[in-house]
């Protein structure tokens, strides 16, 4: 548990947190220069904090030549930083909520209670949507939806007219019980849309490697 505590402590620095948020929001590994420019700090400071994030296991490091050249004279490979699939959570005193969730998911799976789980997830999503609506009544639908998704632990990004999600908040469970958890996830997001009164947008399953299995897309597209 001390490991998770130290990991969370790393994000206590506001500069480090802004770098972490930038790196994990990208669909590709970024250089120190990119991260420094995006967060408005000097490159040496960005390098220092990015390396601290890497040491804590919060970002992954790769080395690649970004010039497209190879062989003698091509220069050294650049040090790049990207998202990591690792998850961290902390509680004091220690509590193993993940183990409890896995046990419950296993029981639901064995009993074939997917519909009941989806009904509960849709209800929870609707409640979250209604709560978000009160706090963002003047925001446009797309901005409001993006904000709601971020509050629920997703990392939304635009993909043409759609909104895709770079991560799944239920990744650990989804990897063990894909149909069960993806169905729950879809129901949760459908409820979120309904509760917030977001129109013209529908949640549907469209898995992509390394991303959430659900995409928010124009409901007109779903009619074809």
Written account of the structure:
- The strands form 3 sheets. The chain has a 3-stranded antiparallel β-sheet with strand order 1-3-2. A two-stranded antiparallel ribbon has the order 4-5.
- The protein folds into 2 domains: 2-82, Winged helix-like DNA-binding domain superfamily/Winged helix DNA-binding domain (Arc Repressor Mutant, subunit A); 114-223, no CATH class.
- The chain is globular.
- The protein is α+β, with helices and mostly antiparallel strands and 224 residues long.
- The protein is built from 9 helices and 7 strands; from the N terminus they run H-H-E-H-H-E-E-H-H-H-E-E-H-H-E-E.
Keywords:
7 strands; 2 domains; two-stranded antiparallel ribbon; globular; alpha+beta; 224 residues; 3-stranded antiparallel β-sheet; 9 helices; Arc Repressor Mutant, subunit A
Point out poorly predicted stretches.
none
Q: Kindly report how far apart the N and C termini lie.
A: 50 Å
Morphology call: globular
Element order: H for helix, E for strand: HHEHHEEHHHEEHHEE
Number of strands: 7
**Multimeric organization:** single chain
Helical content class: 40-55%
Provide the residue-averaged pLDDT.
Answer: 83
SSE map:
Layout: H1 2-10, H2 14-24, E1 30-31, H3 32-39, H4 43-55, E2 60-64, E3 78-82, H5 97-111, H6 114-135, H7 141-151, E4 156-159, E5 162-165, H8 171-174, H9 178-196, E6 201-205, E7 214-218
Antiparallel strand pairs: 1-3, 2-3, 4-5, 6-7
Helix pairs in contact: 2-3, 2-4, 3-4, 6-9
